Amino acid sequence: MSQIRILLIDDHELWRVGIQTLINRTNEFVISAEADSAADALEQARIVQPHVILLDVNLPERDGIAICKDLIKANPLHRILMLTGNADTNFVVDAIIAGAKGYILKDTHPDELLNAIRRVHTGNHYIDPDLTSLLFEQVRKRILPSRFDALTKSERKVLACMTQAMSSKEIALHLGLTVGTVRNYVSAICQKLGVSNRLEATQLAMREQIQLME
Description:
alpha/beta; Rossmann fold; Arc Repressor Mutant, subunit A; 2 domains; six-stranded parallel sheet; 10 helices
């Protein structure tokens, strides 16, 4: 059985050595080439024609997402597994849009990395298990209408103050309102958010990490 050829693209030599050591322990894979820059990556991909490309998200000259796009443009059949130490799911979405087959954290267990390479090589997609729930939550927030959208600009300002543990009197002073007006806003906020009191409204806003102030 022929080995799976891998192109490793990462600017950290220590990390490349670690991956090389891991791969050398198996007869299933082989590092056919390495690259530490965007230009070198494209050139090595053209020469080696790897089965799988391991691509770091963060490179000095150009970010990995942009390089992924270039690699796919040069050869739509490239199967790219993105590597990162960043758990930000925005990068996952960007990588998928760029054409990557998989996305895995650098601190994953070595056996899981090998499993991810196998899946990507066979044409399947792979997302690091530690990112899956976060990714689904992000997609849900993007697609589903938010109950916070019903709040007016003034109500959002009051709610922002509530998340800072400010009392009605403090909010009134901060926003130049009367205490009665603030209380009316709080009542409207609770009604629109479907909660019973200001504490629940505050907890909901903090849990959902809503951007309240422009």
